[in-house]
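Supplementary Methods S3. Complex input for the zinc ion-bound model.
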Amino acid sequence: MKIEHIREKIIATSLKMLSDQLTNGTAGNISIYDRSENLIAITPSGIPYSLLKPEDVSVVDLDGNLIEGKTPSSELEMHLMLYRNRNNINAVIHGHTKYSTAIACLRKNLPAIDYMIAVTGDKEVRCANYASYGTKELAENCFNTMRNSRACLLANHGITTAGEDIEIAYNVLTQVEYISSLYLLSSSVGEPVIIEDEEIYNMIERFKDYGKKIK
Ligand SMILES: [Zn+2]
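Predicted complex, serialized as structure tokens:
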């Protein structure tokens, strides 16, 4: 079985998403790119996370050709586009998380109301225009909106995060979800104050070696 250790990581991350209540069981998808093997492991389409076995995990090449495993997630192209065009991205998570998706339903960007937004590498999390799920248009909207950030919202749909490794992508997902919940909560009693750009850019500098710190 090819890239077995990466398939195990996909399953471990899927189960963590379930226990952290970041998915309802099949929504969302996770991938990891092994650049040395030039292969990507991604959650398959339609199998509940709790039932996922290593042999089910889809293994594809950069063109999306299935090498081993079950039919890949319908959002495969969204993952591949990031890997093809950003050489520091090796893991992608797409989720239908409650609070960040609520912001995406407003089709608003998530502003810097908490300094931890700097983990995304940007001063806000932008919201991509709506497109049907599983389409190339959605993949393009996501890629173009994300630019050099590690996160982007998908209008009326969910969120996508990316990272140098799966731990970083996962941490960005949980931080953006938490900040989204703060934004909704504070907006319910007033207008949240947005932290100045300069302060966030300072934080981004301080987080440059962030990946090493969270391990
Ligand atoms: Zn989705």
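The first helix runs from residue 4 to 19. The chain has one domain: 4-213.
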